[in-house]
Amino acid sequence: MTDLRDEALAALAQQTIELPSWAFGNSGTRFKVFSTPGVPRDPFEKVSDAAQVHRHTGAAPRVSLHIPWDLVDDYGKLAAHAADEGVTIGAVNSNVFQDDDYRLGSLCNPDARIRAKAVAHHLACIDVMRQTGSTDLKIWLADGLNYPGQDDLRARQDRLAEGLAQVYAGLDADMRLLLEYKFFEPAFYATDVPDWGTSLLHCLALGERASVVLDTGHHAPGTNIEFVVAQLLRAGRLGAFDFNSRFYADDDLIVGAADPFQLFRIMSEIVGAGAHLPTSGVNFMLDQCHNIEPKIPGQIRSVMNVQEATAKALLVDREALAEAQTSGDVLGANGVLMDAYNTDVRGLLADLRESQGLPRDPYAAFAATGYLDRIAAERIGGAQASWGA
Ligand code: LRH
Ligand code: MN
Ligand code: MN
């Protein structure tokens, strides 16, 4: 056990989780966006808030951008601001779903002019990557159909392949293309990238620097997500996670809130394949919106939840597990997993943080700083950060 504990501590010390800039702005549902005092007024303030999460957890050193939600005049200045705050810019997310031109889709649109516009937007995102030092271009397309017969399913896949190839050709040698899938919404009948298989087929056709993004909220209820993880890892094409929780649809709630056991099972697959190590190429990102809860504490809680699931996965006695599996000991094997899952790892993580000069309880430590009161007093007139900025 001591060996496992030490190994777990060493691995946890290296783990990083990327934060989405949009988690710090106001967000909501189509029914209501509640505003929060002190919400960031621009991308610079979003980065500053994200840096608070890193300052208290030591595990969140990157911030993803979403373009054009995070539009600024000078991206070099934004990257320099991030550096001053002790973080870096992570993935750049394209956004080809909020312009009237994209009513019938972006890269899959039947109109060649609109497809070209969508490609040009991605090339502009690549330019933002150059200016910020980002190496991951993350693509999620809202493309799809509401009615059978609305457009030709196969032709749309051909257009998609062509558009993605143009975007891929625009990447620098050190950049990756990450393609996210989602089974429905906003399209209700057919989505053009609905599942991991479709995303993987396009990535394989594009080349080695194209990988799949698995957003935990983008599956039909009951989907065995850890199986998808295992399969993508086998293919060497799990590029990133968008972590969040769902009860019903794409809820974007705090990761580990709805189903901590599922998060553990996912992380157990990751650890079993050694993919938790920074060299694995898997970018562990959050994709969440905090509609009614405070945003910075919501992100701190999320980071801690991922750390707890990872710690439990690292405590799985892999030797005992393999032995039980090969000897056909069904309940023994299950028991090994459950032992790890049922371990309280909060003390272990607190010890780790203390050894790194961090607060044992990042959530309480942040609350004690008074930062939220300060920004509420200083920032008047916040910007809405997502879904219609
Ligand atoms: C789509 C999605 C995708 C977007 C984000 C804001 O549902 O998961 O990752 O970029 O939400
Ligand atoms: Mn996502
Ligand atoms: Mn989503």
Automatic annotation (TrEMBL):
Keyword Isomerase belongs to the record: yes
Enzyme Commission numbers on file: 5.3.1.14
Keywords: Isomerase, Manganese, Metal-binding
Taxonomic source organism: Quadrisphaera setariae
Database matches in NCBIfam families: RhaI_grampos (TIGR02635)
Domain of life: Bacteria
Entries under InterPro entries matching the protein: L-rhamnose_isomerase (IPR050337), Rhamnose_iso-rel (IPR013457), Xyl_isomerase-like_sf (IPR036237)
Entry keyword Isomerase: yes
GO molecular function per UniProt: L-rhamnose isomerase activity; metal ion binding
Gene from which the chain derives: rhaI
Protein name: L-rhamnose isomerase
Example of a GO biological process term: L-lyxose metabolic process
